[in-house]
Structures are given as C-alpha cells and as structure tokens.
Amino acid sequence: MRTTRKGRDATRTAPPTTPADRPGRRLRTRLLAAVLVTLVAVLAAGAPSVAVAAGDLTASQHLLRLTQLNTSAIALSHALADERDTVTAFAAAGRPHGGGLTPDQEAGVDRQIADVGQSAASLDTQGSADLADVTRDLRTALAGVPNIRQAALAGTANADQVFDSYTPVVDALDAVSGALARALPDRAADPDTSAGPALARAVTQTSAQHGLLIAALDSGGSTSSLVGAARIARLREQAAEDDFTAAASVTARTQYDQTVTGSDVQAADGYLRRLTATADLTPADRQLNVSTVDQAVSARIDRMRAVQASLAADDSSRLTALRDHDVTALELRAALVGLCALLTLGIGAQTARSVTRPLARVRRYAAEPTGPAPVASGDEFAVVARAIERLSAELDTLRQRVAERDEERARIAAVRQAAAAERDELRRREAVLLEERTAVAAQKDTLARDMRALARQMDALVQDREALLARLGSLQGTVHSTFVNLSLRTLALVDRQLALIEGLENREQDPHELETLFRLDHLATRMRRNSESLLVLAGADTGGGAVSRPVPLVDVVRAGVSEIERYERVRIPFLPRAQLVGFVADDAGHLVAELLENATAFSPPDAEVRVAGWLLETGEVMLSVEDHGIGIPAARLDELNRMLADPHPDESTSTAGLGLYVVARLAGRHGIRVELRPQSQGGTCAIVVLPAALVTGPPDSDWTQLTPPADPFAAHDTTPDATTPDPGTPAYGTAPADGTPAYGATPNHGAEPAQGTPAHGTPAHGTPAHAAPEHTAGPTTPTPTTPAQAGPAHATPAQAAPVHNVPAQTGPAHAAPAHTTPVPGAEHARSAAGPGAGGLPTRPRAGGAPGPDEPAAPDSTRSGAPAAGGTAPDGLAGAGGGRPAPAGAALPKRIPRASGLSGEPAVRGRDTPVDADALRRKLGGFAAGLRHGRRDAEAEAEATGAVPLPAPRTPGDRSDSEPSEEARG
C-alpha cells in the first residue's frame, strides 16, 4: 500500500475499490480450495488401505462359513457312514425282521442332512466354479438319501449294491474339506487344513472296511465281492494315511499317533490285516466273534474320527481369529484415515484464518489513514501497522535531512549491515557449537550408563551360567543313574525270564510247544544283549568281571553266535585252542555278537558269515568276521575305523549304528583293537585283535604260536593272494600234518541234511546238537571203526543222517583221531583253513561207505559226549548244519553278574553202561516219529483250513528262531 503526502496537512487518500478488485476474496477462495484439495488427497490415499481391509474381512467371513459347513459335513459323513455299515450288514444278513435302522437314527440323520443342505445353499461361492460344483453335488447327493435308505431297507438289492449306493453321498461330504483346502489364501494357508482331505479319505476307507467285513462275516453265502471291496478300501486307507503324514504338521502327526493307539487299535489292525489277506474269508475267519471284531474296528474308527473333528475345530478357531483380526484391521484403518482427514481440515482452516484476518485489518487502515489504526495487541501485523504510523509522523523531518545525510546513511547502513551479518554468523556458530557440546555430553552420559548396565548384565549372566551348569551336572548325574538302574532291572527281569523259559523247556514234551519256547528263549537272549548294550553305552559295567577262571575262546565265540538273530548263517572253520581271562569273557562275546549281527544284517540272506581265529607270535589272538554283503564306501569305512579306534566315541557327531558304538566302548574298555576292511571279492571283514594280557594257554595242551606278520591286522589281507597261506606253512588254527583235526574244525557244511532235520546252522539257541550217544561210565579205549561198523544193519534214515556240529576233537588233547573218510564238499572247509590243513573228519554211512551228499557217521569215540576221563568237546555254533539241541544243550549263555562263561562242560557220569546202538535206534525212532507227526499235522491242517504249522527255515527266512526237532530220550 502506497500513500502520497503533499504538505504537512495533506489528507491521505486512496482510490475506491470495487468488489472485483478486492484481493481478499480471491485469497480466501484460494485458501479454501487448498484445504479441500489436501482433504481429498488424504482420503484418496487412505481409501485403498480401507478397501483391502474390507476385502480381507469379506474373504475371512466366507472362509469361516465354509469351515462351519465343513464341520457339519464331517459330522454328517460319520453318521451316514455308520448308517451305511448298519444297512449293509442288514442286507448281507438277508434283511431279518427287527433289524436295520431305528426311527431315532433316521430322524437324527435327516436333521443333519437338512442343516447341511441349508448351509450349502446359503453359502456364497464368490464366483468360484470349484466351490459351486462341490455345493451343487452335495445338495444333489443329500436330496437322494431318503430314496437310497428306502431302497436299502425294503428293496432287493444285495449288500454290494447297498454299500455302493451310499458311497457317493459320503464322498460328496468329504469333498467339502478338499474345497476348503483349495479356497484358503496364502495368508490363511495351514498344513493341517491341507492334510484334512487325506485324513477324511482314511476315515472313510476305514469305515468302509468295517461295514464290508462285518457284512461278510454276517453273510451266509459268498463273500468274495465284499472282501474284494474291503481289500481295495484297505489299500486306499494306507495311501490316504501316507498322504496325511506327508502333508500334516508335526503337531497333527503327533496328535494322530497319540490318539490312534492302544490295544483296541492294535487288535483292529490285526483283524483288518487278517480278513483282507485273502480274496475270500477262510473257515477260520468265519469262526471269529463278529461282536469282538465290530467293537475293535469301531474303536479304531472313533479315534480316527476324533482326530478329524479336532483338526476341523482347530481350523474353525483359527479362521475365527483371522476374521476378528480382519475386523480390527478394518476399524483401525478407517479410524486412522478419518483422523487424518479431520486434522487436515482443522489445520487448514486455522491457517487460512490466521492469514486473512490480519490482512483485512491492514486493508481497512489503508483505506482510512486519518482514523485510528485498528491494530490488535496480538495481531500478526501489529508491528507493520505501528511502523506505518511512525513513518507518517516523521516523514517531513526525514525529507529535510535526506539530502545531507544520504551519503552518511548509506555508509552507515553498509557498515551496520556488515556488522549485523557478522554478528548473526557468530551467533549461529556459537549455537552450533553449544548444540554439539550438549549432544557429545549426552552421548557420553548415555554410553557410561550403558556400560554400567552391560557390566551388571554380564555379572548376572555369569552367575546364571554357573548356576545352570551346576544344575545341569546334577540332572545329568540323576538321569544317568536312573538310566543305569532301569537297564539293570530290565536285565534282571530278562534273566528271570530265561530261567523260567529254560524250566518250561525241560518239562515240555510237545514239539510244537518246544518250538515256541525255543523262539522265546532266543528272543529273550537277544533282549538281554540289547539291555547290556544300553549299559555299555551308559558307561556302566555289565558285571562280566565276576568270572574268575579262564574261558575257552571257542565258548566265547559260541556265546556271541547264540545272541544274534541269524545264527544259522554263521560258519566257524577254525579257532585256536586259547582261553581268555574270566573278566573279559562276557564283553568279548558281546563284541563278537555285535559284529556278527552287523555282518548277517548287511549281507544276502542266503550268504554265510565266517568267523575264524589265529594265534599270533606276540601272544595275541586275532579274530576275523567276514561277510559277502554290499560293502562300505571308503570314506564311510575310514570314519567307522576312526570311531572304533576311539575308546570314548561321540554319539552325537556320527551316524554309526548302535552296534558299532557298543563295539567301540567294549574295545576301549579292554584295550581290544577292531578294524573294518573291504574284501576284494565283495563284503566287509572285521578284524579283532585281543591283547596278550587277556589270553591264556589252552588247558592241558601245548601253547603253540605261529609266526604272524609284523602288523596284526595284516594277518588277514583281503586280496586273493593273501587269503591263501604258503603251502609249506600251516594256517592258523588248521589241522596239523599228522591228520589230527584242528581245534574248532567242523564237519562239512556243504552236505544236505537228512529229511526232517533243519538246514545247516539252525540250532534253537546256537548250540550244536549232541545227538550221538554218551559213553559209558568208566574208562574206554577209542577204537577205529570201518564204515561197515558204523551202525546197525537196519538203521533208519534218521539214524543214518549226519549229526552236524559234532566237534572235531574229543577226549584229551593228544588222543588218537578216529577213522575218517573224506567227503565231497570238504574242499570248501580245506580252502578256508589253507592248503596245509588236514582233511575234515567225516561220518560213514550206515551199512556202507558215505554217499556224495551225506557225511559219514563217526564212531562212538567222536560223539558229542566226552570219553571217560576226558573233557567235553568244544563244538562250534553255526559251523555246519545239524539238529537243534534242547534248551539244556544250548550255546553257552553269558549270565551277567554271575558265573559267566564256563570252560569245558562238566562230564556227567552214568550209573549203568549205555548201549550205543540201542541209543542210536531210540533217537532215530524219536526223529522218525516227529517227522511222521509233522506230516500228519500238516495234512490235517490243510484239510480243516486251520493255521499251518511253521515250515522249516529257508536261507531267506528272517524269523527270530526255529523249532528244535529234538529226540528226547
């Protein structure tokens, strides 16, 4: 605003303004437009977020309604499945009067059908073709249930047709869970919901098996179609369970495993496997109690349905929480956008008013300068108005001085401006320095406080760590002692069980019952070894140090063979006549058992596992366990050998099995060296070197040492050239040059056993069968016999059958050998022993020379019983085929905390002499009777359809043990 003054008393004038020339209105319009544009921009920026939240809420509400429909469909599916099973059994039984469905059952199912149909009709598919098809098929299937029920109850359809008519309805109900899993968005995806369809199929197929099998049991006619449908349902159930396990979370799988368990579930699984094993029901299956089968399978179905209902309830709860979260998010976003809009509107209006009101007052004063200045004390433009008044009063005086002071004013103004600028710069720098100083001081204080707090936290953490370490040590000690105590208790219970089983074996006469007892005995022996393995892993002593006297090495190896599952595959060509100190016998047998277990487990089921031993020049004994399996990769073999060389292997840093850990612990305990080596012909060889401190000489014989290589492990080279010793040097443990069999040599195991006897190497407990008669009390003189003198003229086939596993050396250590005849197949034993080994003893045939497929029977001096004044033989388990021995003649058992392994078995004297030929005839008659009894029992079982008797063991059989065909006389 400009004013002109002509003289001191000139009147201030201003040209009149028109409404079009008023800038105030244009300013207010522009300010209002700016406020409105800002408000619209805020609303536009917040609208997409609100729209997304609203869409999420709509989707979550739709999913919640779909989940509720799925829950109702699951309940209706269970009810219809039960109705289907009942009606199918009713039709299979011929629709007897008074059977079928009760009115209450029909009314309950109809109410559920109405509820599910209404929910499906009211469900918004939201343009999803898949969901629309599922709901349409569901309504169509539910509409036909009354007609299906009426036709099943009053019609003439058979059980198969009744079952098939209900199946589409149940499948349509189960399809809802699949639609729910497919409809879930990424933000609501859950593995348990995705696994729901698989669990629904498993429950449906289990219920189908229940209905079909119950109908088959109730039916009096042909049941092949019902059983065939049940077998298909069985396969579908297993596939559905596999799908559920693959898709479900760990929590859901754990819940399923913990719920679907128990004796009823196990019984149901057994019934289902048995009834679906064949294409039709067997006569034995028809004898089953239908009510018992129904209750067991129904209990399993109820547990599976409980898991399915629980998962559906979890889905409903999770989607309800998702819906609530979406509602909260929508409310928060809408409130935030509204608040921003209100703030924008208020701030804009206040800013516009603060600009327009002072300008209006200044404009009015400019229009009337003669009047008082309308300046408010708190106005933003008050300073400007007062300056205008002072300038108006002093304008005349200043004009008079302008001419003379223009130059000075200009200079002073310039100096003042420079000084002001310098002052402002100094003040600005001072303010910046003060701010930096304040910030540095604040940071220093903050760092000091943080350091003190960090020091206090470190002290607290150190104290907590020490307390936790002390607590952890206490807990580890408690857990370790508890673990050892429980293992010792288990071991004691297994020992008691073995004692009870042995007592039952001694009193039992029925061969079938003896077969079962022998299986239990062998299984309990393996259980005892597993308990001892647990004690070894826990670092506890198994009590083997209780044995005080030396134990023959052959007994230690026999004890190890008796404690494995496939003992019949083990062959022992030769062992040195050495003994181990008593305290190491149990652990050495345990170590050999673990190596044999691995060798039989990782080799073909029909392949042999060979155990041999050598006496080294240093006084050590080396054992080798050879298998013909798939072998071990070189890197893995090195890792295992490093673990076996460590006396305290770390279980957490390797993937070795339990057996090798036990071997490493036992070897480290007694200084035994164990190494695994590959074989050139395939398989793996385990070398065990027993220190000389643990080895003693054989009783009543010379201690002969053979020269080994410098490296004990090199004594068993895996190359073909190294496996064959020098022709001029006898191999360790082979027969000497004078024809005396080597200690531990066995009869030919390549010959076929006689009919009715088990295959080679199938003792009930790993012991050789001492089928030969015992010698009479008193001294006897061994007399060589010819083949013609081997047995009576009228010997039965059982009498002429070879009695394998009879030790090759009996009597005193230097007794003269009996007459022997080489047999075909003995070359295999000679090649295992080396070129320098002598021939194996053979058994002549009754009444003539031995045949090509049957070893000759030995004379009385080579029977399993010792001659008077001599010692009992050391037979080797698994060295050849033979008849299983009774429990009393089983392989030596390692008894923890007791007497341990015995050396030579005690000689039992007789009060009266025994006729060897009479005893042979008696035992042969018993064996023939057993064979005839087995054939009669098998024929009767085939005729009646009963469970067949167990067949003799084949090379690929994996059963725990085999029955003992024992001649008890």
From TrEMBL:
Residues 1-11, 907-920, 955-969 have a biased composition (Basic and acidic residues). It is found in: Membrane. Residues 1-24, 700-969 are annotated as: Disordered. Residues 590-694 form the Histidine kinase domain. InterPro entries: HAMP_dom, HATPase_C_sf, HATPase_dom, His_kinase_dom, Nitrate/nitrite_sensing, TCS_sensor_his_kinase. It holds the Pfam family NIT. Residues 353-400 form the HAMP domain. It catalyses: ATP + protein L-histidine = ADP + protein N-phospho-L-histidine. Gene3D superfamilies: Histidine kinase-like ATPase, C-terminal domain. Keywords: Coiled coil, Kinase, Membrane, Phosphoprotein, Transferase, Transmembrane, Transmembrane helix, Two-component regulatory system. This is histidine kinase. It comes from Streptantibioticus silvisoli. The lineage of its organism: Bacteria, Bacillati, Actinomycetota, Actinomycetes, Kitasatosporales.
